[in-house]
């Protein structure tokens, strides 16, 4: 590792993924500069640099850094997706809000990093730039972008414009696209599923054979750091997964095993489940459960020699252990 790579800046270092990346950097003896909003808490050992907005970043924020891992973003929220469907005007406003941070803010951060002499800029994107359901086979990095919503559109635009910026200026760009990320500290739907299983609630997932790619937050941190350091990552896009795609039913059962609470799965046919979802206004949520979203992560293994340090079972076990500890 070069001396310049012994410090890496992490935007959004206080978040779920940012904390995992920070821990992994420090464990490898790499100093971490956390670029976060004022008052945000980072992992112990991170050198915090408070910022107000991404577009106000100046080169001094990246002093001494050989690379940047850009995690700061406006993230996808279900309420945003619902708002997008209500009217064209609200959808436009929502897209503008995503673009302001995920596109304009990203480019501003990249430009400030370039002016500071940073060599590598790694963008955390999302598999949503390709879609919410695979085309009958795992998505590859060469598939065309078909983002389904404002968040996905903003991430897709950020990828394209950032790669163009790198080609024009010489800043080395690497892009990481994770599917569903889980691990200790997870929130949203994954946490809701664990809560339901732990409480013994029946779940209508016993007949869902759709397969979903996952990546543990520790595997994602490891792969992202590899993209920041490996010369072969420059100018490329990489998908990152645990390497095994469980069905929704299998995932629920595995979680139940690790939680010590066998999942109560009711075998409701996927077609019936989708019909009930339409009546209840939950179509989007159920579509995610009943449709496959598999991701091919062969490129990062073959091109960079990266191997996931954690298996799916190990990742689920760690997540379940965290969940049990946090319960009253």
TrEMBL record:
PANTHER family: NAD(P)-BINDING DOMAIN-CONTAINING PROTEIN-RELATED, PROTEIN YEEZ. InterPro entries: Epimerase_deHydtase (IPR001509), NAD(P)-bd_dom_sf (IPR036291), NAD(P)-dependent_oxidoreduct (IPR051783). GO terms for cellular component: cytoplasm. This is Epimerase/dehydratase WbiG. The lineage of its organism: Bacteria, Pseudomonadati, Pseudomonadota, Betaproteobacteria, Burkholderiales. Residues 8-237 form the NAD-dependent epimerase/dehydratase domain. Pfam families: Epimerase (PF01370). One of its GO terms (molecular function) is aldehyde dehydrogenase (NAD+) activity. It comes from Caballeronia catudaia. Gene3D superfamilies: NAD(P)-binding Rossmann-like Domain (3.40.50.720).
């Amino acid at each position: 590792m070069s001396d310049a790579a012994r410090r890496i800046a992490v935007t959004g270092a206080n978040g779920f993924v940012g904390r995992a990346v920070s821990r992994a950097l420090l464990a490898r003896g790499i100093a971490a500069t956390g670029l976060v909003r004022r008052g945000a808490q980072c992992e112990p050992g991170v050198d915090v640099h408070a910022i107000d907005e991404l577009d106000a970043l100046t080169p001094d924020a990246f002093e001494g850094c050989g690379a940047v891992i850009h995690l700061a973003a406006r993230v996808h929220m279900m309420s945003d997706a619902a708002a997008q469907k209500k009217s064209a005007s609200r959808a436009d406003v929502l897209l503008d809000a995503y673009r302001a941070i995920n596109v304009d803010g990203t480019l501003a951060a990249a430009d400030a990093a370039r002016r500071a002499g940073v060599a590598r800029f790694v963008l955390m994107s999302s598999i949503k730039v390709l879609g919410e359901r695979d085309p009958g086979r795992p998505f590859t990095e060469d598939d065309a972008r078909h983002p389904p919503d404002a968040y996905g559109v903003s991430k897709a635009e950020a990828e394209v414009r950032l790669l163009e910026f790198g080609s024009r200026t010489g800043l080395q760009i690497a892009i990481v696209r994770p599917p569903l990320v889980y691990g200790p500290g997870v929130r949203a739907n994954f946490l809701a599923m664990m809560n339901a299983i732990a409480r013994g609630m029946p779940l209508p997932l016993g007949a869902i054979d759709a397969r979903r790619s996952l990546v543990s937050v520790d595997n994602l941190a490891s792969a992202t750091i590899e993209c920041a350091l490996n010369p072969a990552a420059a100018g490329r896009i990489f998908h990152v997964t645990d390497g095994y795609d469980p069905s929704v039913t299998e995932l629920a059962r595995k979680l139940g095993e690790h939680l010590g609470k066998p999942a109560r799965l009711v075998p409701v046919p996927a077609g019936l489940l989708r019909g009930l979802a339409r009546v209840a206004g939950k179509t989007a949520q159920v579509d995610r459960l009943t449709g496959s979203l598999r991701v091919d992560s062969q490129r990062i293994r073959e091109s960079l020699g990266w191997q996931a340090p954690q298996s799916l079972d190990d990742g689920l076990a760690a997540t379940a252990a965290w969940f049990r500890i946090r319960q009253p």
